[in-house]
Amino acid sequence: MVGEQGGLYSIGAFAKLTGVTERTLRFYDRKGLLAPSSRNEHGHRYYTEKDLMRLQQILTLKYLDFSLEDINAYLQRPEEELQHTLAMQFELLEQKKRQLEQVLVTIGRMRRILEGAGKVDNDLLLLLIHNLQHEERQKRWLSGQMPPSMVEAIFMEKLPEEQRLELERRMTVLLARLKEHYREGRHLNDEEVLACGWELSALLEQLIGPVMSGLSEQELAQMEALGDPATGVDPVLFPNLFAKEEEAFLQQLFEHLGTYRTMMEGKSHEQ
Length: 271
Prior knowledge:
Layout: E1 4-5, E2 8-10, H1 11-18, H2 22-30, E3 38-39, E4 45-47, H3 49-63, H4 68-76, H5 82-114, H6 122-133, H7 135-143, H8 148-154, H9 161-183, H10 191-213, H11 217-225, H12 244-270
Antiparallel strand pairs: 1-2, 2-4, 3-4
Helix pairs in contact: 5-6, 5-9, 8-10, 9-10, 10-12
InterPro entries: DNA-bd_dom_put_sf, MerR-type_HTH_dom, MerR_fam
GO molecular function, one term: DNA-binding transcription factor activity
Keywords: DNA-binding
């Protein structure tokens, strides 16, 4: 019996009739969602019109985004009020819709930041996406730890969108290059390392320099307290973009740049 006979459908005929693959039908059988009405002496599956109705129910519930577990539970309790279940499912889908919209916004923004940025390390890229994902939570936490003007500066809230994206893109490029320079074992006096360090330092100065110069002593002390491990910065909310060795390399680079700047300013005063 290959096709339909006496109201029975072989698995191949049933798959062709319903547009569901044989593999899926076997999977539904293993999961207890749709067992064939009968089997022959060789174990071949055969389906009936009743099975067709049950499959239609499964596919409809799947279309409504019910999980297979929820579909199985519902089919075990056909007397359950579907209207109430649909109301709950609607709320879940609304929540999923909002989440998907946020994911699309995050990916879209990340793609714009990466335009022309060249190759970016996967670990760095995922951390940057993480920061975009949790940006609002980060703002709320930092607002309780530092002056509002500093939070605005860090997240570039007052800048036009295109200018902010360009700064984010430039910082991403510089961070990626510095990570690469470290992996290549370059020295702090390497011209490309210094060039990246100077440019990153200039960007940070452009963003937070004006705000820092206007902070009171109390506000500056509040800022310094953030560097204290006892402050309890959430490492999940604020993951470090760099490994410890990379962070030490950056710290040495900025100290090196600071020493060089002090030395040059001293020479300028002597002249």
